[in-house]
Amino acid sequence: MSEITLIATCAMGLEAIVAREVRDLGYDRVTVENGRVTFVGDELAICRTNLWLRTADRILIKMGQFKALTFDELFEGTKALPWSDWIPEDGEFPAEGRSHKSQLSSVPACQGIVKKAVVEHMKQRYSTEWFRETGGRYVMEVALLNDIATLTLDTTGPSLHKRGYRKLITEAPLKETMAAALVLLSRWRAERPLYDPFCGSGTIPIEAAMIGWNLAPGLRRSFAAEAWPAVPEALWAEAREEAFDLVRDDVPLEIVGSDIDSAAIDVALAAAKAAGLAKELSLQVLPVAKARPRGDYGCVITNPPYGERLGDRDEVEKVLRQLGSITARLPTWSTFILNPNKQVEHYMGRPADKKRKLFNGRIECQLYQYYAAGGLYGWRDNPNKSKSPES
Q1: Do residues 57 and 161 make contact, with C-beta atoms less than 8 angstroms apart?
Q2: Alpha-carbon distance 247 to 264, whole Å?
Q3: CATH 3.40.50.150 domain locations along the chain
Q4: The THUMP domain covers which part of the protein (predicted)?
């Protein structure tokens, strides 16, 4: 297999988590940039990273990078790249693009130049003047930043947050990738209880259960590169077999989600069933004021309503104060709250132990992190638990 430079794209603020996931898969030649993690792998890495990365959006093949101040430079640089190593004669190869702080600012024009350049490259390779484009889909992207053009091929297709279990959505749903990021940042482990008192469509509990059982998030979906001759079917089979072998579905889980909206809980129950986790999760209609998490050394992970899109500000203040009262009675629990409201600490009645800026879609939020007495999970009171690493 050949050495390939790959890019895992992600939401701003999640780069370090994606990089950790990539390294955990065994790929240690990693470079972290804004909104992307570049690493070196092979054809099998395309399969494994698409199946396993919980917090990335897409896996791209980096075809090349060069300076492009003119359309001629963009055309010649693109034409020189090895497109025919990946795209067969019948491949469909649409061009997408974006430009920021670059002289070539017209995205439609850049897309047209890239398409024309790749066609010229393909004509030389396949000795034909016309391409049917009836085969697999190879989405090319030209990204211009400070006059540097980066050309990529998308191996993923629909974004990785589309796991395949959520057929219905609620208003203002949390993406699966962000929900998984919150669980990973909490350092929650399957032997501990987890509670989400604003679970909505159940994304945080479902993603937590998948992490607890070590279920690869891409097992229930397909990917664009599965139709590519350059990534043999045998490699996808190998990657999926590895993923199935690593499932730990004998681990008991204590994961609870609740929400005041009965329609949202109906959606959550349907999603849990589609994910094969309906029997492992407790999802119930319940106002936050009546939430009573059980057990010790647990974790509250939640994305309360923001006010701008759901409910009004007075109601948001009320439920956040109620959440603060509940978590104050849980000295061995840690709490993680994703919210854009700058008054969260005031409503919770205490400053967060740590804050981390994250973007939920285009909304800038803070992840407010409240640790249990004695550390992230009460290490001083629970010496038999392993020490928490940096989160």
Answers
A1: yes
A2: 28
A3: 176-215+242-370
A4: 70-154
> In sequence order, which residues have a C-beta less than 8 Å from that of residue 316 and are 6 or more positions away?
304, 305, 306, 307, 341
Helix residue ranges per DSSP H, 127-192: 176-186
Q: Model pTM greater than 0.90?
A: yes
| Sign of the dihedral defined by the CA atoms of residues 123, 128, 129, 133, in that order | negative
Q: What CATH architecture is 4-154?
A: 2-Layer Sandwich (3.30)
Reading the block at residue 311, the tokens are: 């409910």
Phi, psi of 363 (to 5 degrees): -90, 120
Closest C-alpha among 36, 23, 384, 49 to residue 225 = 49
Q: 377 pLDDT exceeds 70?
A: no
- Specify whether the CB–CB gap between 74 and 68 falls below 8 A: yes
Summarised one tens digit per residue, pLDDT across range 215-263 is: 999 999 999 999 999 999 999 999 999 999 999 999 999 999 999 999 9
Q: What is the CA radius of gyration of the chain?
A: 23
Ramachandran region of residue 282, left (φ > 0), alpha (ψ -120 to 50) or beta? beta
Give the model confidence (pLDDT) of 274-302 as tens digits.
999 999 999 999 999 999 999 999 999 99
**Count of beta carbons in the 10 Å neighbourhood of residue 232:** 14
Every domain of the chain with CATH number 3.30.2130.30 lies at: 4-154
- CA dist 377 and 389 (Å) reads 11
Q: Which two tokens stand for residue 300?
A: 């509250």
Backbone angles phi, psi at 381, to 5 degrees: -90, -10
Give the residues across from 40 on adjacent strands: 5
- What SS3 string covers 119-167? HHHHHHHHCCCCCCCCCCECEEEEEEECCEEEEEEECCCCCCCCCCCCC
Distance separating alpha carbons of residues 281 and 33, to the nearest angstrom? 36
Which of the pair, 218 or 379, is modelled with greater confidence? 218
CATH topology of domain 176-215+242-370: Rossmann fold (3.40.50)
